[in-house]
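ZP: hey, is the magnesium ion complex queued? I don't see it on the tracker
AM: it wasn't, my bad. submitting now with these inputs:
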Amino acid sequence: MPPEPTTAPAKPLSAPQRALQKLGLTRDIDLALHLPLRYEDETRLTPLLSAHEGDTVHLEGIVRESRIELRPRRQLIVKLALPDDDGEPGLQGLILRFVNFYPSHQKTLAVGARVRVRGELRHGFFGREIVHPSFRAVAPGEPMAQALTPVYPTSAQLPQAYLRKAVAAGLARARLDEILPPQVLPRGVPTLREALQLLHHPTPDTGLQALQEREHPAWLRIKFEELLAQQLSQLQSQRERARLRAPALKAAPGGLVERLLAVLPFQLTGAQRRVAEEIAADLVRPQPMHRLLQGDVGSGKTVVAALAAAVAMDAGWQCALMAPTEILAEQHFRKLVQWLQPLGIETAWLTGSRKGKARAEMIDKVASGAAKLVVGTHAVIQDDVVFARLGLAVIDEQHRFGVAQRLELRRKLALEAGRGSSQPLEPHLLMMSATPIPRTLAMTYFADLDVSTLDELPPGRTPIVTRVFSADRRDPVIERVRDEVGKGSQVYWVVPLIEESEALDLRNATETHEQLSAALPGIGVGLLHGRMKPADKAAVMAEFTANRLQVLVATTVIEVGVDVPNASVMVIEHAERFGLAQLHQLRGRVGRGAVASVCVLLYTGPLSQTGRERLRAMAETTDGFEIARRDLEIRGPGEFMGARQSGDALLRFADLAQDGDLLAQAREVAPWLLDEQPAIAQAQIRRWLGGRMEFLKA
Ligand code: ADP
Ligand code: MG
């Protein structure tokens, strides 16, 4: 079956077109599968007499008056006369109020215009009113909508009306032929075309409840299709991988692994020992390992990676360790050099900022095999870096790598396969992440990925106390910082933006740095932000690590992996602007030593509902799994789209908690389809996963 046609135009894209692309809505089928979040009923008007305050109403009227008032603030006030029961404009009135408006508002809402408006009914100063209603001009007697109006998840750059048209067009054009044999489908579900038609444009008599709760047969059809595509693709990658060959890596008795354990300044935790064994058991097998090591911030993943590397190097192979940022790569490099150099292991260091002769030297060492361990950023997988014998690749904070980089990595690993041996051998792959995925999800979702979990923190950690304060309390917080520094602690002070942005009124890092320097005389205050040159960043980090700077004002560049055990205070300004996972990562920079640590979250109100829930979650728990669970719970549709973009949300429609039966059925039929109806299986995968397919494997 040929691939689904795309709608990619030749002209430069308009802003909404670019926004569509950003949401992954490029093919007709993608648009057809972009389902509404909810519906608005514009099939009838609301009888005003029976409407209560707080109801969402849909009304039609004639504009009687339109004026701009300047007090108490600039606003557009429009008075609407609503028709009496006989349909003639009568005495009933309604105020429309706009605090943000454009000339186009005034034009459409000019005196005499007939409009339909929709919004939440309130009782304001002038009587019944709607603030910021949606509205459109209509002709007298214009018919009502025949179906409920879909409201789609969208982004700021993509107006709902534009998206609605694009989805309707995509739905009309998409080839939605029934490719699945009827016997694999759940009982009583409609065809794919019927299901999509109904979900996009339900008639007013469709049970809204069943639609909202996603229990309508149309929903079951969609969810089953999605689960099936996902199971097929996982099963397929699993089978592909089972055919690949990898070097069998075995640690020699008395070899590097044992010597490394002997020089470590600590004992492994039980969890580290268990996970290291799981990895070692994979490495001795002649199939490439494909394992995700997840463990909360500070759980000690680095040493587990070092042990895996030691196994590979002991067996005579090279190991590459990649981190998403230069700061993080440098930290790994230092730690690994400190542990491994005394054992006679030469380590190469490759990042974007290492150029010219230094880079050429490193590349030679990698190519000759003199460097057994190669640490760096994605510079490690560039084409001119050729490994003598790559046996293991370790990717730290793998979810931080972009899709393109993950694909590049896979390509590179495939290229490296077989270098230095007669038969193509793929390197083993170990991915590490501090963003835990709930176990059931991981097992179902990554049929092609083995998961190890570090569920224990190294001993001697004191829990981090988290306090949430309004930004008015900033001065006492600065006092506290002074006290803590006096007691020998070091402090991170995190700000959300680098450059002044008037609109958002955020303190910029430079200004905060100046303020804190002035407020804390005699204390070394450093500044670290993303716009600095890598060498300057490294220099500042080194000063902070050596405790020559006591306070570090930083943007989120420190979010990932920075490890300075003496830092025990973290202040985050504008905490309401950060996502929950990000706050958790940031907080993980403290609580690494033996002293009690504090995390202060400063917020500027008013807080949104989700903002409040995020801060509460932070104050209530430090457990990364619990945070991940709450994050899923709190995330609104907007963020959901963001997550889908990054591939985190692997299921758009089905919900494992609710759809266990559908999942069971999909798992049952997937192997049969793949074996007996391979063309159908491929078409199903392509239809649902399209361009995301490669990425899901990455
Ligand atoms: P993460 O999992 O966040 O990458 P790290 O590997 O950076 O964690 O480890 C956090 C800190 O804990 C480091 O300073 C590391 O040296 C230390 N550490 C790791 N394992 C142990 C252990 N078993 N006992 C004591 N300290 C440990
Ligand atoms: Mg780490």
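AM: back. The longest strand covers residues 56-69.
ZP: great, adding it to the tracker
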